[in-house]
Amino acid sequence: MKITGLTAVALVFGASVAMAEVVPPKEVKFTEDGAVETPVTTTPGNPANGRKVFAHRKKGNCLACHQNSDMKDLPFHGEIGPSLDGVGDRYSEAELRGIVVNAKKALNPDTIMPAFYKDWGFRRVLKKFQGKSILTAQEVEDVVAYLKTLKE
Amino acid sequence: MKLTRIGAGLAAAIIGLAGMASAEEPEIKKLVIDGVEMTVAAPAPPYLENLDMIYSGWLFRSPETQALELDDFDNPGMVFVEQAQDMFSTPEGTAGKACADCHQLEDFKGLRTVLPRVEDDGKLWTMEDYINKCRTDRMGAKAWKYGGTELTSMVALIGLQSRGMPVNVKIDGPAKPYWEKGKEIFYTRVGQLDMACANCHEDNYGKMIRADRLSQGQINGFPTYRLKNGKLNSVHARFKGCMKNIRAQPYNVGGDEFKALELYIASRGNGLSVETPSVRN
Questions:
Q1: Which end of chain B is more exposed for a tag (fewer CB within 10 A), N or C?
Q2: Which pLDDT value is given to residue A18?
Q3: Whole-angstrom Cα distance, residue B100 to residue A36?
Q4: Is-contact B22 B13, C-beta < 8 A?
Q5: How far apart are CA A35 and CA A99, in angstroms?
Q6: Higher model confidence: residue B172 or residue B9?
Q7: Residue B14 reports pLDDT greater than 50
Q8: Which of A32, A65, A120, A126 is the best residue to mutate to test the B interface, defined by the most B CB atoms within 10 Å of its own CB?
Q9: What is the pLDDT of residues B197-210, one digit of tens each?
């Protein structure tokens, strides 16, 4: 009995330690320049997964609009946005996070670039995407970690 | 003070630049089908504030895809047109009549160029509407599914009679409110990706978006045979596809919003040749 109780406590405690703390999209704080200083999840970004999210057509699909020499192995780099070569030199981590979370705040209010971590305020969203952001908090951090590796 | 002002000025200049259309003009080539030269590039009509020139989607395709439109023997869309030709002379419905009992195909020369248009009932009529009206009211047959292969093939057959003639839809008078509504849809951002038709087809035409080169989204070539799905595609089916790609709930195929959008986009192509049936990827 006693042991069971202890184990249960340990399990719950253990689980809460391992669980990442996530900043929901509506609570993300931007600086005046549109940067986001606090990571949107406490689990550090994984650049290798960020690279996958970047290319994945149903996730970031960043390659649809941006050229990226680090992905020479993949065909069809878009031309809508600037090349992201060296973007890790041009921007700080907080700026990169702001751009990925909501480029309309970080870069240009009229940009075609979607806000990847915003889940409200859109018109006529398809049912299965309603109330959802394009990327999860972890995917945002992963992409930011990947962008930091893009140095000239 | 001085620094702040310079800073603000610079910021304004950068935003100004970024907001500017950065579309790329296509290479102009000649499109001659069956000895008739198509107008694939023309000055933009005066009501298009943001464009100088209008271009057929044909100019933005790869040389291989372009080649498929040069000759009707190579144009895979013609198979559907031939099927429509058979349907044209096949009686259907309780009246026991075929289209051919009332019409000769040549009578339809020029019709494509002016549709959609407002009829006496004040409603906006598409080619699909006219065909289905004949089926239900004059033939006693069932309406064909809007966007379905039969109706879209018949739309192509009738459109073909106007091939080479300039698109010339009316936008004033009773058409005006429909045109305004279509225009509003064209410029309104929708979906989880938060984009408007204009973001891709006005601001960025000529550029690659992943594997596709963006065109101006003109509809002078519709119905279009797409290599991607191997069939003729209606205007509304294309609108629906583009809306789903930006994760927006599409309007209804055959519904009022898409008809208004069809009129508006047709008017953006006033001056281009009817190119029906075109070939795209």
A1: N
A2: 64
A3: 67
A4: no
A5: 7
A6: B172
A7: no
A8: A126
A9: 999 999 999 999 99
CB contact under 8 A, B248 and A61: no
- Give, to the nearest 10 degrees, the angle between helix A93-101 and helix A137-148: 130
Which of A32, A33, A66, A80 has the highest number of chain B CBs within 10 A, making it the mutation to test binding with B? A80
Q: CB distance B190–A65 less than 8 Å?
A: no
SS3 B166: strand
Amino acid found at B213 = R
Tokens at B257, concatenated: 């919003």
> What residue in A sits closest to B200 (Cα-Cα)?
A112
Confidence of residue A19 (pLDDT cuts 50, 70, 90): confident
What's the residue count for chain B? 281
Hey, are the CB atoms on A134 and B192 less than 8 Å from each other? yes
B197 included as an active-site residue:
no
CA B213 to chain centre: 17
Binned at pLDDT 50, 70 and 90, residue A50 comes out as very high
pLDDT of A16 strictly over 90:
no
Task: Judge contact between B226 and B233, C-beta under 8 A.
Answer: yes
How many CA atoms are closer than 13 Å to the CA of B122, on its beta-carbon side?
A: 1
pLDDT tier, A58 (very low <50, low <70, confident <90, very high otherwise): very high
Angle, alpha carbons B273-B152-B128 (nearest 5°)? 85
Q: Taking each helix axis from N to C terminus, what angle separates A137-148 and A47-55, rounded to the nearest 10 degrees?
A: 100
Q: Please count the residue pairs, one from chain A and one from chain B, whose beta carbons lie less than 8 angstroms apart.
A: 75
User: Any idea which residue has 């070939």 for tokens?
Assistant: B279
- Distance, in Å, from the CA atom of B30 to the CA atom of A63, rounded to the nearest integer, reads 33
Between A78, A111, A129, which is nearest B192 by CB? A129
Pair A60, A54: CB distance under 8 Å: yes
pLDDT tens figures, A88-114? 999 999 999 999 999 999 999 999 999
Whole-angstrom Cα Rg for chain B: 20
